[in-house]
Amino acid sequence: MFNPDSTALNTTLTDMRAAWLTNTPSYTQRMADLAKLSLEVVAQKEALVAAVSADFGRRSRHETLLADIMMVLEDIKDTRKRLARWMRPKRVAVDFKAWPASAQILYKPLGVVGILSPWNYPIQLSLSPLVAAIAAGNHVMLKPSEHTPKTSELLAALLAKVFPPERVCVVQGEAEVAQRFSELAFDHLLYTGSTAVGKLVMAAAAKNLTPVTLELGGKSPCLIAPDFPVAQAAERVAQMKHLNAGQTCIAPDYVLVAKHHVEEFKNAYRRVIEAAYPNIASNPDYTSIVTDRQFQRLNQYLTEAESMGATVERICPGDAPAPDARILPPTMVFATTPDMKLMQEEIFGPILPVLSYEKIEDALAIIHSHPRPLAFYHFDHQSQRTEYVLSKITAGGVTVNDCAMHFTQHDLPFGGVGASGMGHYHGHAGFLTFTKQMPVFRQARWSGFWLLKPPYKKLADRAVAFLTRG
After folding, report:
1. What CATH number is given to the structural domain containing 179?
2. pLDDT over 90, % of the chain
3. Where is 214: in which H helix or E strand?
4. Count of domains forming the chain
5. What pLDDT does residue 2 have?
6. Which of 390, 388, 433 is nearest to 415 (CA)?
7. What is the pLDDT of residues 355-369, one digit of tens each?
8. Of 417, 427, 371, 368, residue with least CA distance to 396
9. I need a surface site. Which of 85, 249, 349, 452 has the fewest CB within 10 A?
């Protein structure tokens, strides 16, 4: 479906909801669908890698296999392993006043859910939420990003092989289609992308009181403790910072280093980059920036920072990239100020501002000057100080002594807080996001509540006195 108008989108949603009401997917159907999806992703693996690379201009094959394909396959495997347990009704205790009644929670699918996915990991961030929604028993309308059209088209064809159109429908089109999509009366809507667009999505969904999960971003900081091995921190920060050329919502956005370790960090970081990418221009492991607009935005950040007194150090081993290649070399920026766009906006590229601090409290003050981040990374071998820092920080998720590893754990919910998002998915959290936990109270043949109905007499007086005694 290409560039559908509002009428076509509403008709599709109506038809999918009618199909869901007629034949809500059973456990057997969900398991079969997920197994078939896994097989199809494996079968289309090389085609997906090629499509993503074509959309980016150059995308590391290994990064697509690891961050997109592997993550989806692991999600499916873990979900199928645990789905029966997740779906099982949960018996809960009833208050003694309701004895001998019983109570339970039923896990009910919501109906038809919408997924708006981004361009930076176009396979994983389309299919992982879809896996959770399918596991919960929903039908799904998916709108992938218009900035990765080849991948979106291949995803549409892939999903059409796995699901009939009344169960999963892929909607393609430009930004105006995404806007119309977010205005539909879904039973739940999950959006992954920028905070600015997230506000628009939430406003559009509010017209129908559609519940939303927003997976946004922000300025995710790294705080390196004064006595942590600097070379090790530099290696782990650099590895995650340059995955997908920094075009990752949980990439380290800036790093806080003790003042007397800044030069050591700079040299260590440079060594890591030069070893990993010996020739930036021709290295297939180094990903290009997805669009001209994003490339220009990042260069404007650097130009402004330099004009305002920052020191910009580009690390470009080998040949210089061609001007039209959209390849931005790894770049460190020093002496930034809070009024630079580089320190106000999420960077989403291979640029790392390096800030210095004298006391941990000074570093925490810098972090607190920004909205709550999607991720926080603390490097520290001193457990007491680590716990102190964690007590002062609220973030979407945290990895200690590394970067982004919390994202890879099925048993950890993933999501933001405040400006970095709301709601969670991954593993059981994803199943619950797309499920209504429906409480059910089952009254017994005999109920003690007959004592508490009018006309109230002495027995009721005594019962009320007992229940309100404090």
Report:
1. 3.40.605.10
2. 89
3. strand 212-215
4. 2
5. 57
6. 433
7. 999 999 999 999 999
8. 417
9. 85
Q: Is 246 left (phi over 0), alpha (psi -120 to 50) or beta?
A: left
List the catalytic residue out of 169, 215, 222, 403: 215
Residue 214 confidence class, pLDDT cut points 50, 70, 90: very high
pLDDT confidence band for 317 (50 / 70 / 90):
confident
Nearby residues of 30 by Cβ (< 8 Å), 6 or more positions away: 83, 134, 135, 137
Rounded to an integer, what is the distance from CA 291 to the centroid of its chain? 21
Report the Cα 71 to chain-centroid distance in Å. 13
Same domain, 62 and 203: yes
Q: Which two tokens stand for residue 336?
A: 């930034």
Task: Tell me, yes or no, whether 450 lies in a domain.
Answer: no
Whether residue 249 lies in the annotated active site: yes
Same domain, 40 and 176: yes
| Same domain (yes/no): 80, 146 | yes
Whether 216 and 372 have beta carbons less than 8 Å apart is answered as: no
DSSP string computed for 229-256:
-HHHHHHHHHHHHTGGGG--TTS--EEE
Burial code of 409-425, b = ≥16 C-beta within 10 A, e = fewer?
A: ebebbbbbbbbbbbbbb
In 3-state terms, what secondary structure has residue 287? coil
Please state whether beta strands 102-109 and 435-442 pair in parallel, antiparallel, or not at all (unpaired): antiparallel
Structural tokens at position 249:
């919502």
Whichever domain contains 259, its CATH number is 3.40.309.10
Mean pLDDT of the chain, nearest integer = 95
Annotated catalytic residue 183: no
Residue that is written with structure tokens 């429906």 in the block: 438
Domain residues for the domain of 174 are 6-216+420-438
Same domain for 250 and 149? Answer: no
- Note whether 351 and 424 are same-domain residues: no
Closest CA to 79 of 116, 134, 141: 134
Identify the active-site residue in 222, 249, 316, 403.
Answer: 249
pTM of the model: 0.94
Question: DSSP E strands: which ranges in 26-138?
Answer: 90-92, 102-109, 112-116
Alpha helix (H) residue ranges in 259-368: 262-276, 292-307, 360-368
